[in-house]
Amino acid sequence: MGEGVVGVDLAAFGLRPGEAVRFRRSGRGRWRRGRLERIERDGSIGVRDDKGAARALPAGVVEVAAIGPKGAATWEPLLERMTRGDQLELF
Question: Could you tell me the residue range of the domain that residue 74 belongs to?
Answer without folding.
Answer: 10-84
